Amino acid sequence: MYGEIKVFSGNANIRLAKDICKYLQIPLGGVEIFEFPNENIFCCLKASVRGQDVFVIQPFAKPVNTRIMELLIMIDTLRRDSAGRITAVIPYYAYGRTDKKDQPRVPITARLLADLIATAGADRFLTIDLHAGQIQGFFSIPGDEVTAFHLQKAYFLEKNVLNAVVVAPDVGSSKKARNLAEALHVPLAIVEKRRVRHNDQGTTVEALSLIGDVAGKNAIMFDDEIDTAGTITEAMHFLKDEGARDIYACVTHAVLSDPAVERLQNSPLKELVVTDTLPIPPEKMMSNIKVLSVAPLLGEVIRRTHLGVSVGAMFNE
To answer: Quick one: which of 26, 173, 202, 297 has the fewest CB in 10 Å?
Structure first.
C-alpha cells in the first residue's frame, strides 16, 4: 500500500487541478515551479512526499514544449523526494498526430514523449481521448486512457437536439461519431475529404462528398480535438451547402490554434461543446462555447487508482 493521496499541478491548467482536488476533498499540493530568464525551469516541493501516492496534473497546453519540460522536471523532483508512486495525469497529450512513420525520415514523437515520461520516473499515466489509440502501447508503464464520451453524450441527450444527425468531419473520426450517433439514436453522416498541398503554403482541406443525408437536419459534428479548425469549418460550410440547418460541434480538446477562432466566427457554427482538458484564454472564449468539466471524471479515476479499484467498471455502472 502507498501512503495518502497527493495531487500536484504544473502551470498548464491549475484551475482543473483545483477542481479535481475539490472533488477529492483534499488540498492541492504546494509546489514552486517557474522559469528563469535563461528559460531553465526550476521546481521545489513545499512539503515531503516520501511514500505518498502522487498524481501530477499537467496537460500539454501552450507553450507545449515548456509544459512537457515542467512535467518531466516535476516527476524527477517527486522521485528524488522518494514518492511512493507517481502518476502523470495528462488530460491532453500533444504530438498525438506524430504516432507513426507516414513518410520517410520522420520521427514518432508520441513514442518519444512516452519514453521521456517513464524515464523521468513516472510509474503510471492517465490521459483522456488520445488522438490515436495505439499511443497507449508506446508507454512502458501501466496507465489508463479514459474518455469524455459519456459527458458529451449526457449533454446532448439533455439538450435533445431535434431532427439531429451526427457528422464525422472526416473518415478518420467516423468510429467515434458512430458511437455518439448510436447513443443518441440518430443517423450518422461522414464528410469525405482530401488534402491538397500548395507548395510552401501548408495544407488546405477540401471537402469532396457526403456519405449520408443532412438536408433539413441539425448536424452534430464530433471529433477528438479542434486545432486550427480548418477541417471542421470547411466541413461546416459543406454541410450548409448540403442543406443542413443548425450545426453543433463537439470535441474533447479545445486546442484552438490561430486562426481557429476567426474561422469559427466566420462559420455557420451554432455551438461548440468542449471540455476543460485545456484552458481556453479569455480572448478565445467565444459566446457560443460550452465547456464541460472533466474534473469529476479525473477525480474519480484518481480515487479508484489510489484505492486499487477497477477504473473500467465506472463506465459500466
So the answer is: 202
Can you tell me the distance from the alpha carbon of 22 to that of 11, in angstroms, rounded to the nearest whole number? 18
Candidates 6, 176, 193, 217; catalytic one? 193
At residue 102, the pLDDT reads 87
Determine the CATH number of domain 149-292.
Answer: 3.40.50.2020
pLDDT at 243: 97
Q: Which amino acid is at 81?
A: D
Supply the pTM of this predicted model. Answer: 0.94
Under CATH, which number does the domain 5-147+295-315 receive? 3.40.50.2020
* H-assigned helices in 43-101: 64-80
Strands 188-197 and 203-211: antiparallel
- Mark whether 159 is an active-site residue: no
Check for a shared fold between 5-147+295-315 and 149-292.
yes
- Check whether 135 has a pLDDT greater than 70: yes
Q: Domain segments of the chain: what residues?
A: 5-147+295-315, 149-292
